[in-house]
Amino acid sequence: MDAARIKAWQVKATPWDAGDVQPAFRELLDERWDEVGVSLDALKDGKALVAGCGRGCDAAFIAAHGIDTLGIDLSPTAIDVAKKHLASQPGAPSNIAFQQADFFAFPLPNDERFSLAFDYTFFCALPPEPFRKQWGARYAEVIRPGGLLICLAYPLDGNREGGPPYSVSEEAYDAVLSDHFEKIYSKHPSQMAEDRPVGRDKMLVYRRQ
Fold first, then answer.
1. Cα–Cα distance between 71 and 100 in angstroms, integer?
2. Biological process GO annotation list (predicted)?
3. Of 144, 134, 135, whose CA–CA distance to 48 is shortest?
4. Which band of pLDDT confidence, cut at 50, 70 and 90, is reported for residue 22?
């Protein structure tokens, strides 16, 4: 999976790269955040993490909301694309950094855990065994108590086999997060990526206990 992702960015075969903020994520932060019940201001004394950040649009969106943000990707090509894309945007936030790193092994900046993380097209890219349990354990390591993990769960394809992207379910997220996180939000978005069928994705928010 690691080599395939790196190669995909090298040859520009990245169908998951929408080139913009995910509409469901934008809707959550800008229109539905009150429903989550946690003030964004309470997260601004920490930093946000976007693993598998790709072009970095979602990471920059978080930074624009006033939270210092780190975007990481295993692919050095993706990080180069992210830096160039950010530099090309008028009024781009300055409180953001991109770094080539392995999510499962990178050292925490200044040994400080994150107050927020956003995960999309990363969970679904991992072969369910053994990586999903490792994914959940790693987020428990890097997010501070009271911090939030926002997941755009996609694709909700039931029992479809094969991948990536591998089919996911809300229960699959719960299974690997419930030991250390409390789920505080679960709703299908009304704003979705172009041509995406209704019900194929869901916004989930978990709070680190």
1. 9
2. methylation
3. 144
4. very high
